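re the bet — no i am not wrong, look at it urself. input seq straight from the record:
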Amino acid sequence: MKRRQYLHYSFSSLLALWVSPSRLFADSGKNLSRIESIESTWKALARKDFKILDAWPRISVSKKDRMTKFSLLEAHILFEEGTEKPYSSPYNSENRAGIYVCRSCSLALFSSEMKYDSHTGWPSFYTSIPAHLAKKTDYKLIWPRIEYHCVKCGGHQGHVFNDGPAPTYERWCNNGASLTFIETKSA
């Protein structure tokens, strides 16, 4: 346990040195208000026939449903916290307007306005729909990473890193196999 704490504090200290004070305070309120606008108006990108779900109540996915409703890869990622191979998801190059929902329960997680090309091989977003994802610390690769899950079904989505674009500097690195894209249809 002491080794894990030492590695955690060492990594955190190095990260603090990497994040310069000018980067922390460089963004104007104008950019942050744009992010708040994107986070609050994502429903406008949903199709009229798409039922927008509430994050609560939570649901549980049975083992039988995991085996019958999902491919082996999807079940491994969503329920065993696995990761898909980089550049294997068609959502990596998806550019249409719409929303990205949890493959397991269809809770909306991201909008197309939140997506950007991180050149990492996974669909990436610089923010998420508020209160639809829960974070936890993951130590599988020794150093701590922030993992996130759908709050409705607990399905594993990916990891969030602090190397994204301004103004959030976040990269929500998502497994494409954990998502379903719902394209906005023009009226």
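see?? The beta strands are 98-102, 108-111, 115-116, 124-125, 133-138, 145-150, 156-161, 171-174, 179-183. told u. also The longest helix spans residues 2-18. so pay up
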